[in-house]
Request: fold
Amino acid sequence: MILKETFTLSNGVEIPKLGLGTWFINDDDAGQAVKEAVKIGYAHIDTAQAYGNERGVGEGVKNCGAKREELFVTTKLAAEIKSYKEAVHAIDGSLEKMSLDHADLMIIHSPQPWAEFGGKERFLEGNREAWRALEDAYKAGKLRAIGVSNFQKPDIENILESCSVSPMVNQILAHVTNTPQALIRYCQEKGILVEAYSPIGHGELLKNAELAAMAEKYGVSLPQLCIRYVLQLDLIALPKTGNPEHMKNNADVDFIITQEDMAQLKNMARIKDYGKAGVFPVYK
Ligand SMILES: NC(=O)c1ccc[n+]([C@@H]2O[C@H](COP(=O)([O-])OP(=O)(O)OC[C@H]3O[C@@H](n4cnc5c(N)ncnc54)[C@H](OP(=O)(O)O)[C@@H]3O)[C@@H](O)[C@H]2O)c1
Reply:
């Protein structure tokens, strides 16, 4: 059962393969979503300073009935923070908001502030500063693991050249029709676990007829096919939903996609338009 399966990070910490994404679950609903998810068996929750729901997620973690050590909570340092001092303050701020004495994983949300996402400036010095703050919080026991998100190869090289603790994960956009294979391979070679965000293409893949037909062939839902796809690439899957029926469905993925179908999924035409979500930098 996928909810019981874990990967082991480079520092030996275990991370559940399936996590609950919480982007667009508002602060007042996040606690209930965490409680529902934990009741179903989820042990891994993904939030971020930018989602504005760390308080609600923390409340859910405290009151869901599971022991703290049974859960894996990830949060993200805001993309705009590129100095040591601000990063230290923001890390402590996240723990305070969540009312937790530690997070299981904290990652730099993006190498570039969102307003400059995809631009030429890579903020190399600012990312080294932010990374140093994560390292210090890790060494102080406030974070059990640290990592990055949306980092390309040069951004990772920048950290690897100067760090005392190597990043343990890189959380990136990875889904059927958009699988950055070279970056995944590079991370895996460096011992960095890759987490797939938006595994259902932020919902846009639900409209894909070719995928619907393949899902039908396996007797599964389209989201199940999408989630199984990233898991078979040895990636963490982080589907978002606040709906308990969808949570159950997304966790019921104990089927195998054939190598032939995996190849077809890898090569499917890329989503050109993420609909309304196209305004967000990660989909531009
Ligand atoms: N690091 C980053 O920069 C970054 C960027 C984007 C996302 N993320 C993380 O990745 C998580 C997931 O990505 P995402 O939120 O973009 O989207 P996603 O998980 O790819 O797709 C979510 C959409 O799929 C629907 N859905 C989920 N399960 C379903 C099911 N079983 N049946 C039917 N519909 C289903 C959801 O609707 P319902 O809610 O109605 O179920 C929602 O509309 C985020 O929540 C966040 O934690 C990180």
Notes: Residues 61 and 245 are 20 Å apart (CA to CA). The longest strand covers residues 72-77.
